[in-house]
Amino acid sequence: MTDENQTNTTQRKRWSLKWKWALGTAIGTALIFICFSLLVYKSFTNLLIRQEQRDVASAVSTIQQSLRTESTGLTIKSVAAKLQPEANVEPADGMEARKHGALQTKIFSDSELTALSRTNLAVTVYDPEGTTLYISRKDAHEFKKNANRTIQMIGHGSNSELVGRAPIHAAANHKLIGYAQVTDDLADYHNTTHNLMWIFIVMTLIAIFGATLLGYFLAAFLLRPMRKITQTINAVNLDPQTDSRVPDLNRNDELSDLAVLFNDMLDQMQRYITQQQQFVEDVSHELRTPVAIIQGHMELLNRWGKDDPQILAESLSASLSETQRMQSLVQEMLDLSRAEQLEINFSHETTDVQKLVTQAFNDFKMIHPDFIFTFDDDVKQPVYAQIYRNHLEQILIILLDNAVKYSTKRQEIHLSLSTDIRYIEVAVQDFGEGISKDNLDRVFNRFYRVDKARSRDKGGNGLGLSIAQRLVEGYHGRISVESVVGQGSIFRFHLPILKDPKLLAKAEADTDAVEKIAKSELPAGIRPAVPDPDEPPLDDHEHDSNSIK
């Protein structure tokens, strides 16, 4: 029990789609914003570093230009006079004092020396032997001789500094008179990058929080139709035959498409349930009479038919007749049930309508020689429809067979074929009994007969026209009837002309293949006989005997 409770608790803990959407949006926003921030941070810091390098290079150049006029050599006083012309400060005598900034001052009167006034710069001047002649601020970096000007980054992170070193040559004789060293502690750079990093962190957190809220509320807004779909699903689960459907969402998006497809699925399921119930009701209703007749005859035989040959013959004949009618009825009902499920099994079948209508005309003309059949063909070239060949043939047989059955006086049938821009029209006209206006709207109903007694005598079960209607409508066509009592009827059905290029190409290819086989002298797969040169020819008496046989 404990394990089951834990399992149920685990199953109940789930993330709703709104929270998944919100967290996904937040994570995506965070990743994008972090990448963007890193790129901006890297570009900005590189820009700051280059600016600091230019400042150090400018400071080094200023020192070189200021001291290169001392051709006799550099001294503490001459360096101080050049770099600090208005600083009346005596340099310290001891080296230790000079290393700690004996000549520290903030007075720089020369405009060219303003670059040295920055608090983050430490300027040091050495003589050729490395003796310190001038220190503006404390500098922890040791002296190094450099033949050329260099600027180096020393240290890592917040402890990094820029150090620029360059030799000083006299302008008159290009003699080496000393070295200049400028150290930039990058305090402004570190402060700026530190503040920039915090700004990006705060902005990223704000962006994540905003994206989370926006994603959650946006998901809640967009998923509102799911409540209606869920309500409809629950209603269908409670009652599979309910008429509840997803209402119109008034949204031109995927959820609206899903609602339409879901309603179509429910309608199709409802049709199948109704068809199943209708099938069971029809079977129970229509089979009740023949079963009762057979049962009555069997009881009659059981009582008196054993000793009476006439009763025995009549009962057996009636029972066989009802059995055959039951077999025909069941077959027609199965055909009707299959006709209502065409979109499942025959959605890609195509047929040459002109060829099949011509074939049906010739067949009925042959099996009913006492009838006059005429065929008006207004189609000058093959025309294809998206319909299974056997189904189109079944529709034609039903209509032509009914025309023959109910043509009692004038035995004449007219068949016509025509097309317009979108549809193929096939019409079957007879000159028989006709149908009254009261019955026209019901001739396509199941088991409906205009004259039940006469229809039963003719072998009909009242399902033929219903099957034809289901077949035509299953292929997105329509069927209609016009009739006048005593003058005959005209049944017309229309089928959409095939327009799909792929299906049309396939249909034409199949038709060509069938025609090639039909026109070949021998059936496919049979080779012509080749005489054997080693076999002797037949004698005359062998020819005669073979011909007799």
List the helices and strands and how they pair.
Elements: H1 2-12, H2 17-67, H3 76-83, H4 95-99, E1 121-126, E2 132-135, E3 150-154, E4 161-169, E5 176-184, H5 187-222, H6 224-238, H7 254-286, H8 288-305, H9 309-339, H10 342-345, E6 351-352, H11 353-367, E7 372-377, E8 384-385, H12 389-405, E9 412-419, E10 423-430, H13 437-440, H14 452-457, H15 464-474, E11 478-484, E12 488-496, H16 501-519, H17 540-548
Parallel strand pairs: 7-9
Antiparallel strand pairs: 1-2, 1-5, 3-4, 4-5, 6-8, 9-10, 10-12, 11-12
The portion of residues assigned to helices is 40-55%
Placed side by side, the strands forming the largest sheet appear as 2-1-5-4-3
CA-based gyration radius = 52 Å
Q: Between the first and last Cα atoms, what is the distance in angstroms?
A: 90 Å
Number of strands: 12
- The average pLDDT value, as a whole number, equals 77
Membrane topology: Multi-pass membrane protein
Main location: membrane
Keywords: ATP-binding, Kinase, Membrane, Nucleotide-binding, Phosphoprotein, Transferase, Transmembrane, Transmembrane helix, Two-component regulatory system
Subcellular location: Membrane
